[in-house]
């Protein structure tokens, strides 16, 4: 099961579990979200993303989203009125989105001496060429979209679930991609914490460098 | 501080001037709003800060404001706790503000990204909660950044803003946002 599928099904499970609890018919033990295993070492993406960034990003930032979603869901389950539950939805979206987005992101990356940076092949390569003419042209467009984010957010290469067409979208803060409409293929974290220790304010260099560690094999699996 | 001022603030200024002088792209208005807001917010922010050893960093430099804070929040400590919790609750990039609302009541509010204080309210103190404001020193530990920033707040400047008429600042720019 891909991370995308498992993250989605976790959210589905979570919403189902809470609606059951709200009926008061079941006191199920809800499984807590946990950090997914990182498929490489912290330093394995150097020099493109530093080991320090990876370690803080994974053990601190992602962990905070995991803690946040667990905490919010606990409070949601304990809330007795609809108003209390509604007040928690923004926290659930933020931390749940942060967990989903980062889980997809880690799988998107691979060391440059493994799959990182190897261009896509097959149907995905064809689809990218159809939409943007070339992989380089696509990267340029995606980097422009990333650089244009005003604040914190993410850039995504997505497939439209109805038409199959590819597009580039950006999402603010930790808003997750709407997976009813789109399948996220490649996500790039444009929060300052994703690059600041290494690239400081020169985020354009981060966006250029990250393509050296993008795992297109993951994108191909999500695409098909 | 150096990067924040010489790179980040400078980029807002440069991009604002670019958007104003060559308004060609479809999102010029959004660029002016964002970069103009970034320029205004950072301009207030630098004045909000002062060395911890300076007399302006003492709460006694803002007697009227301290009275108003106690009236609104019960005590300075309650204000600090509420303001801190609000800052740490910002989801993404943004700012936290102590403002004087129309009708002369204090309030604490957040603005997202580089949105500015509007609706006739006056910004008294602004705290930059973008990650670039603290990341090199505090990493993800933004609670420590918030705790420590209290040591370098320029209370004299906040008092001046409370008493003075600062509605006119950045008037032309604000009209363009
Ligand atoms: Fe992140
Ligand atoms: Fe800033």
Automatic annotation (TrEMBL), chain A:
Keyword hit for Oxidoreductase: yes
Cofactor(s), names only, from the UniProt record: Mn(2+)
Molecular-function annotations in GO: manganese ion binding; superoxide dismutase activity
Stretches assigned to the Manganese/iron superoxide dismutase N-terminal domain: 32-110
Enzyme class: oxidoreductase
SUPFAM superfamilies per record: Fe,Mn superoxide dismutase (SOD), C-terminal domain (SSF54719), Fe,Mn superoxide dismutase (SOD), N-terminal domain (SSF46609)
Domain (Manganese/iron superoxide dismutase C-terminal): residue spans on this chain: 120-222
GO CC list: mitochondrion
E.C. no: 1.15.1.1
Binding-site list for Mn(2+): 57, 102, 189, 193
InterPro entries linked: Fe/Mn_Superoxide_Dismutase, Mn/Fe_SOD, Mn/Fe_SOD_BS, Mn/Fe_SOD_C, Mn/Fe_SOD_N, Mn/Fe_SOD_N_sf, SOD_C_sf
Catalysed reaction equations from the record: 2 superoxide + 2 H(+) = H2O2 + O2
The keyword Manganese belongs to this UniProt entry's keyword annotation: yes
Superkingdom, natural source: Eukaryota
Function: Destroys radicals which are normally produced within the cells and which are toxic to biological systems.
Protein family according to the UniProt entry: Belongs to the iron/manganese superoxide dismutase family.
The protein's name: Superoxide dismutase
Source species: Drechslerella dactyloides (Nematode-trapping fungus)
Phylogenetic classification of the source organism: Eukaryota, Fungi, Dikarya, Ascomycota, Pezizomycotina
UniProtKB/TrEMBL annotation, chain B:
Binding-site residues for Mn(2+), renumbered to this chain: 4, 42, 128, 132
Sequence ranges assigned to domain Manganese/iron superoxide dismutase N-terminal in this UniProt record: 1-49
Gene Ontology cellular-component terms listed: mitochondrial matrix
Catalytic activity reported: 2 superoxide + 2 H(+) = H2O2 + O2
Cofactors demanded by this protein: Mn(2+)
Stretch forming the signal peptide: none
UniProt xrefs under SUPFAM superfamilies: Fe,Mn superoxide dismutase (SOD), C-terminal domain, Fe,Mn superoxide dismutase (SOD), N-terminal domain
Start and end residues of each Manganese/iron superoxide dismutase C-terminal domain: 64-161
Cellular compartments annotated: Mitochondrion matrix
Single Gene Ontology MF annotation: superoxide dismutase activity
Alphabetical UniProt keywords: Manganese, Metal-binding, Mitochondrion, Oxidoreductase, Transit peptide
Biological function: Destroys superoxide anion radicals which are normally produced within the cells and which are toxic to biological systems.
Protein family (similarity comment): Belongs to the iron/manganese superoxide dismutase family.
Oligomer status and interactors: Homotetramer.
Protein name: Superoxide dismutase
Species this chain originates from: Drechslerella dactyloides (Nematode-trapping fungus)
């Amino acid at each position: 099961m891909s991370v995308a599928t498992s993250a989605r099904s976790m959210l589905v499970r979570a919403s189902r579990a809470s609606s059951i609890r709200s009926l008061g018919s079941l006191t199920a033990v809800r499984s807590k979200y946990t950090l997914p295993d990182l498929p490489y070492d912290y330093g394995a993406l150097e020099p493109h993303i530093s080991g320090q960034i990876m370690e803080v990003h994974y053990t601190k930032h992602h962990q905070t989203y995991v803690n946040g979603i667990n905490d919010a869901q606990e409070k949601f389950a304990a809330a007795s009125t609809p108003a209390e539950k509604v007040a928690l939805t923004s926290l659930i979206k933020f931390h749940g989105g942060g967990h989903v987005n980062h889980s997809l992101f880690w799988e998107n990356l691979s060391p440059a001496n493994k799959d990182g940076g190897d261009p896509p092949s097959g149907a995905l390569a064809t689809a990218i060429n159809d939409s943007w003419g070339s992989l380089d042209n696509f990267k340029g467009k995606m980097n422009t979209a990333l650089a244009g984010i005003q604040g914190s957010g993410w850039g995504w290469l997505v497939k439209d679930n109805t038409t199959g067409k590819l597009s580039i979208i950006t999402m603010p803060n930790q808003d997750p991609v709407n997976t009813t409409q789109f399948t996220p293929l490649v996500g790039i974290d444009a929060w300052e914490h994703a690059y600041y220790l290494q690239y400081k304010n020169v985020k354009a260099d981060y966006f250029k460098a990250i393509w050296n560690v993008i795992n297109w094999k993951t994108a191909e699996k999500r695409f098909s | 501080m150096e990067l924040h001022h010489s790179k980040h603030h400078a980029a807002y200024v440069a991009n604002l001037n670019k958007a104003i002088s060559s308004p060609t792209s479809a999102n010029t208005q959004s660029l002016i709003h964002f970069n103009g807001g970034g320029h205004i917010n950072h301009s207030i922010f630098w004045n909000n800060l002062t060395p911890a050893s300076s007399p302006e960093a003492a709460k006694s430099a803002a007697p009227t404001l301290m009275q108003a804070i106690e009236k609104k929040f019960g005590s300075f400590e309650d204000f600090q706790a509420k303001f801190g919790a609000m800052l740490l609750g910002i989801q993404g990039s943004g700012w936290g503000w102590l403002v004087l609302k129309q009708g002369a009541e204090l309030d604490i509010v957040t603005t997202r990204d580089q949105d500015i204080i509007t609706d006739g309210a006056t910004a008294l103190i602004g705290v930059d909660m973008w990650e670039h404001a603290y990341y090199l020193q505090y990493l993800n530990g933004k609670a420590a950044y918030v705790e420590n920033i209290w040591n370098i707040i320029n209370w004299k400047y906040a008092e001046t803003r409370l008493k003075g008429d600062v509605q006119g600042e950045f008037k032309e720019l604000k009209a363009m946002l």
